[in-house]
Amino acid sequence: MYIKGNLKKDRKTKNLVKRLRAGDIAIIDHKDIDEIAAISLVESKVKCVLNLNKSISGKYPNKGPSILVDAGIILLESKNKEIFDVVCEGEELEINNNLILYKDKVIGNFEELDSNKIKELLSIGYSNIEKELDKFIENTLEYAKKEKELVLEKGNIPKVKTKINGRHVLVVVRGKDYKKDLLAIQNYISEVKPVLIGVDGGGDALLEFGLTPDILIGDMDSVSDKCLRLSKEIIVHAYTDGRAPGLQRVNALGLDAKIFPSAGTSEDIAFLLAYYNNVDLIVAVGTHSNMIDFLEKGRSGMSSTFLVRLKVGSKLVDAKGVNMLYRSSLKPKYVVGLGIAALIPIIVLTLMFPPMKELIKLIQIRLRILFGFRR
């Protein structure tokens, strides 16, 4: 194996993908590469990913490595963590046989994760899933007892300038299938015009589709400066003691923001914000809905999400459901009927026009001669 290319590095994959270019070698330190990170790397069109951590630890069956390899991206693992501090971004890196070379010096070795190796590691993850599920449920229920105030009290809900009462709200998280879901509900968005709430990087997801967030809510750690400036209203997710690290970034851009202290996730508080402002419907795009989603985010439980879903469940629907219910499909018989109806005035006008009458008679005569019909 021989690979050569410009290297880009970051300990946070979500930050790295913003700087990657086609043909780069991406150096990451990402344990259990998740699906969203893998899709982002694939979209960046890198030629190789060098991970200084375990791409599949065996804790659970994460799909990221399979996505990379299926897309033709070479996935390598190295135990030489010092590589991260040795190399400089933008320089060339060489992969030759089993060696990693930088400025003509060997700085480490690697193991390639091909499809067979990935299957072997995933089988370990599948065998552990029951044990992880037990731990996940126990942790969820334990913390649910402590966090019940999250849904019982609404004193922390900030007042919003956006007119939201009695409207539909679209909450967008840059999670699994967010592009597919947003594309599927374009008609719904253009006709119903819901209030658009972007959760962190979900704000940029809306911008990708030419939509401007009415409200941007979250830690502000994975959203662009452009989105912060364009969003009509900003709410920073804070700790329960009031500390809001993301507020500093917002203020540094000369922007105003409100804070929302909560023990829940940013998407949880987005749902609560909508619910307590008496919206008619909450439509979710890209949100986390199962244990694997939460394990990929590094969470050991989903107590806040469990409680919030119980609270807002009567008004919450997934975008996929909206697409199924909202899209109008014409049956073939209706299409034929519409076609015939459209042709009737054309036929009538044609028959009323004298030259067209003569043309139709000539066509009739030609057809009789052609098929041997006589009067």
UniProtKB/TrEMBL annotation:
A GO term, aspect molecular function: ATP binding
Pfam families attached to this UniProt entry: SteA-like_C (PF12555)
Name listed for the protein in its UniProt record: Uncharacterized membrane-anchored protein
Residue ranges annotated for the SteA-like C-terminal domain, each copy included: 320-371
Superkingdom to which the source organism belongs: Bacteria
Segments crossing the lipid bilayer: 334-353
GO BP annotations listed: thiamine diphosphate biosynthetic process
Organism of derivation: Proteiniborus ethanoligenes
This protein's UniProt keywords: ATP-binding, Kinase, Membrane, Nucleotide-binding, Transferase, Transmembrane, Transmembrane helix
InterPro entries membership: Put_SteA-like, SteA-like_C, TPK_catalytic_sf
